[in-house]
Amino acid sequence: MNVIENLSSSLNRTDQEPNQQLARQIILTEDQEAITELIKNLSNPNKTIQSDCIKVLYEIGEQKPDLISEHLEVFTALLQSKNNRLVWGALSALDKISNLYPDKIYRDLPEILDAADKGSVISKDHAVNILIKLAGNKKYHDEAFILLLGQLSACPLNQLPMYAENAMVVVSEEYKTGFLQILQSRLTEFEKESKRKRVEKVIEKMSVGRMEDKRSRGK
Description:
mainly alpha, about 0% strand
């Protein structure tokens, strides 16, 4: 398979369908040579080819993360890139494989969070997803959830409902109060009622859970 010839830019396409089709083909064949070619071309002089390659790689990671997991170090190194497309693409790839290598992802958290702070909203989305996955791991729960609370306190308001909804499943009893306090403190910031209601729904669900826990302990 000639990977480069099948990229969207090589086909003079402005849409992502060729890249997505290429990712599906690589997944079906588990073509590691094609993945190696994509990794190699992340440093191609043509930035459009770089962008296409990272797109194909994280599309592969979405369906079959183990196929790209051995390149974790490459994705981490890309967090220092001046090409923002590569940075958030790398964060997307790291997000996809974070459950496979939590130790390495935890080790690289400073670089991940620094890249997210400097990057786009999409970068922040993936960094928060990574923290949520680490918070679901008993070994890293405390450290990851404390960092997650920091993200919830300072994240763009438009992202807060999604972050709160996704984080709800990994909130332990120890951090439930802090989680609820942060969400309640930001309710007054909302102008869009629909987004405020989403956060209020999370608060309500978590508060009901607390009441049920108290009743259970009281029996």
